[in-house]
Aminotransferase class V-fold PLP-dependent enzyme
Amino acid sequence: MAYFDSASSAPLHPVARQALLAALDEGWADPARLYREGRRARLLLDAARETAAEAAGCRPDELVFTSSGTRAVHDGIAGALAGRRRVGRHLVVSAVEHSCVLQSAAAHAADGGTVTEVGTDRAGRVAPGAYAAALRPDTALACLQSANHEVGTEQPVAQSAQDCRAAGVPLLVDAAQSLAWGPVPGDWSLLTASAHKWGGPPGVGLLAVRKGVRFAPRGPADERESGRAPGFPDVPAVVAAAAALRAVRQEAEREAARLRALVERIRARVPELVPETEVVGDPVRRLPHLVTFSCLYVDGEALLHELDRAGFSVSSGSSCTASTLVPSHVLRAMGVLSEGNVRVSLPPGTAEAEVERFLGVLPGAVAEVRARLGAPAPADGAPGGRRSPAARPGGEESAGDEPVLTVDALGRRCPVPVIELAKVIGDVPDGAVIAVLADDAAARLDIPAWCAMRGQEYLGERPAEGGTSYRVRRRA
Amino acid sequence: MAYFDSASSAPLHPVARQALLAALDEGWADPARLYREGRRARLLLDAARETAAEAAGCRPDELVFTSSGTRAVHDGIAGALAGRRRVGRHLVVSAVEHSCVLQSAAAHAADGGTVTEVGTDRAGRVAPGAYAAALRPDTALACLQSANHEVGTEQPVAQSAQDCRAAGVPLLVDAAQSLAWGPVPGDWSLLTASAHKWGGPPGVGLLAVRKGVRFAPRGPADERESGRAPGFPDVPAVVAAAAALRAVRQEAEREAARLRALVERIRARVPELVPETEVVGDPVRRLPHLVTFSCLYVDGEALLHELDRAGFSVSSGSSCTASTLVPSHVLRAMGVLSEGNVRVSLPPGTAEAEVERFLGVLPGAVAEVRARLGAPAPADGAPGGRRSPAARPGGEESAGDEPVLTVDALGRRCPVPVIELAKVIGDVPDGAVIAVLADDAAARLDIPAWCAMRGQEYLGERPAEGGTSYRVRRRA
């Protein structure tokens, strides 16, 4: 068995397990109490706070422990927005933030606030200039992740923090994916993170709020954790989380180099081994342990199932693996293929042999799923697909471009609409237009992405009875 | 060492520790994932939910795990209020609820809602009739604890649940202190609890919402736990919490009988062993493991320190042990003495010998603190103090009642104002009035309580320069 989904949750670090066991004995009591069990818990909590603050790059009294990374984000954003309500109610986020940030943004918008989502390039990276341009006089808060959780792309947080300072806007950095690897660079104002991402136990998040940042906690008052995280503190889990963070940081440099080499190998080899595959995310400015690729004509859920049978646990941003029927908002914002999406995130200590075994298993797993779906044979010029400068994502249609062929994929889910398109594209003359009727949300992303990968011209979409009509011009 | 504060937090049950260790190995992954580690976590989570639901007396799909009892209360109250916003914005609570309920009520009032606090008798018990009378056509929610956390008094939840049903109002029962001992009786609508109170780990709360109860979760949307508890679930802690709940329930009947006998012994012996002491809370309808008493002329913090030195960890509702300078709202609502307050809550397994040792140590500890404070010698008729029917808490003054003596206790904290009063009461003639000038918040509770205990007549209070003037008429 190989668990390659540490970006979802890392297995408990051995140091965390040991610290947890010790703290269950020593730190179970209420740290607010005056008797010895309480004082002991208090000492452990204070020491954990110092350790975590050092790793986060802030003062201990700037950091509180929350019950999860999600709570840190929800409560951090709400508190920062409320603290600057007099300035205004404008919130800036990137389009590729973790869903908990976007949930907070949606709640803010529903409550009458305004939100600007800053887009990314095709690698998932926010342009610092575009981010700075979104800041306004009434901007209460800006949020930017340190690195993306689905594709590994690092964001320009140091530059954006500087731009935010210049604009007088606090920047909240969601560091959930990167804190294991090092402190967040730059002069951020708020920081959030989640312990189970770095090998700590679940149930612990971090929220750091620098001195001087206006912050007004929402919800009922509670005296715990400086009034910023209500409820009885889980001291044993906090102690374990801090111990794990210190431990992974001590190993970070060496382990980052080792995993980065393994990730580079996957990035290079997958397109060679598996035809019609796109590796996504910034090739250089990226997390060391995470790599994501998408495979044409593949049902993500079926591929995950095949890989699971072969002993590999990975995750996917394909809509067909989620309950929502909508592909990952990250892949959508990047404008890349969502079907057959696979995220590999290697936990510390991953053996080279396991990665080799994964590379050995993957081609057969993909081929199996493709065969089952009746996918077309690999295109000429494969492996790797090809990009044509003529491809125009979101291109234009002229009045005379009536489709010579319509593919009815209504009621069929990803990746079937794209497979049906690929099957017939060779049947029409060069320059002719094909329409694909589909009602699956992934088609909106995957048909243009397929065109970009295969050098076909995407013309655009029109409402159609029962769904949407996507128009593609054949470019031979 | 004897830890007698299980009402704050119980030591981890051995079964919980074992379950936690196993679940750290088996249940660390994301239960929403499709691979085997995720499926395994899901199975554990589902099983824990069934166990907890059975213990709570609800269906598994009515119960979610929160990150603490406080979060269960905060989010349960907010969701129930929002779900019935169209009905109205009136909230009913008892005056002796846990602070997290009263915090929610205060937040609701600050947000424009209205709150009725239903008082209790001197034993801390809510009268069902008074509670039912507080329900109005615009009442969105009513909250009543199953048993009080400071004095152990059980509340009439079954009757109140029936009254609430009749009025069409959902009743939320905070069962934090009682769930270890048995299910909450009656037809409640929502229920909250906290695992570390029953020997589970910290970081786990329960929120049950019966089918048909209108509930609209507040805050950013999140798909976890039926949308009612955001954030990555702490499956190992949840598994341990459920295992501990099942274990304590299996032992509950036998252990309740055993601890009840020990508590009865404390209730009977403390007034015999320690002069000028009042045992508080309902003598019959009470939790089996908890007993509370207050000692005149004693500084609660000093007494806790003495007991800690002697190896006993207990808690106190005295203001001098808290950071707020205000005595426990529970003792205030009951109208009982707050100074020298001690709560003893015995964890399961407490040995009889430990209780005997406590009873052996207590008189010396109290005497030591009293001597240090220069407290008066025990009154005639001690031990136990005496109650006079002439005592009129909140009594009246007539125009001619000018004090013959004024005790200036401004700037002196509890229990000094009461000690100074007691020292001079014998110096004035029968029927004469003494004024005590004090600015300590505890004086407002403790001077009338002292009068009630010592058969003196409390006349009332007046604003005075720098504080308040409390008037007492000597009754010889």
